[in-house]
Design a protein that fits this description.
Number of helices: 1
Number of strands: 15
Number of domains: 1
Radius of gyration: 16 Å
Structural class: mainly beta
Shape: globular
CATH architecture: Sandwich
Largest sheet: 8 strands, antiparallel
Helix content: under 10%
Length: 221
């Protein structure tokens, strides 16, 4: 995960040892806070059922051998399908340079200051409790990409929220994968919960981009 993103035509793969060090720096200064609530969570669309996942080791160049599955339209190649956008958020031309999902991918999500992007809600099972994605940092001092991960127990409606702040003056310039981000737990009696992501910006006005939003099933590690 280089500090300066390589060109789209010939993305570089970081050495394993270097990748491990830079992965630790990717969210330097990030904060995670978990809260519990019985109030309804934000939830875009009817939850996608827990079904068989198409998994791959997309983060292996960064010393992460876990399998991951993509969120619905998590690479934004389908435009705004399965995403609720507000405040000027939009799908734009330009992909994370490694194109881990498919070499033909050419889109990502642009989140200007004041915009929000909410994912389609999906069902996840116990052990599917880590997320990872690619972030394009504008490197504006004081700018923050706010990542809110909301889970809901479908039995009783109990909600837990975990928030991560990616700091513009701490994370590397340009495209880079985040570290593995854990999510909260509100499991039903059959061991499932509903998962939604909400992305926004805070602090100094700046425009961020995200791409390839993945979930890691524990059973695959």
């Amino acid at each position: 995960m280089p500090v300066v993103a390589p060109s789209q035509s010939s993305p570089a793969r970081p050495p394993r040892r270097l990748g491990r060090r830079l992965a630790a720096a990717a969210l330097a200064g990030a904060a995670a806070v978990t809260t519990l609530s019985a109030a309804p969570a934000s939830a875009h669309g009817t939850a996608v059922a827990c079904t068989a996942r198409s998994e791959s080791r997309v983060f292996s160049p960064w010393s992460d051998s876990s399998n991951y599955f993509l969120m619905p339209n998590g690479g934004f190649e389908g435009g705004t399908v399965d995403w609720k956008l507000a405040g000027g958020a939009s799908v734009v031309t330009g992909n994370e340079p490694w194109k881990v999902r498919n070499g033909a991918d050419n889109r990502s999500l642009r989140i200007p200051y004041g915009a929000t992007a909410e994912s389609r809600t999906i069902c996840v099972s116990k052990g599917e409790d880590v997320i990872r994605l690619f972030v394009n940092n504008p490197r504006v001092r004081g700018s923050i990409l706010h990542v809110e991960v909301i889970v809901r127990n479908p039995d009783n409606g109990a909600v837990a929220q975990t928030a991560f702040d990616v700091n513009g003056d701490a994370a590397p310039l340009g495209w880079a994968p985040t570290m593995r981000l854990g999510i909260a737990q509100q499991w039903s009696t059959i061991g499932t919960q509903e998962l939604t992501f909400v992305f926004s910006t805070r602090g100094t006005p700046a425009t961020w981009q995200i791409d390839d939003v993945y979930v890691d099933p524990f059973r695959s590690t």
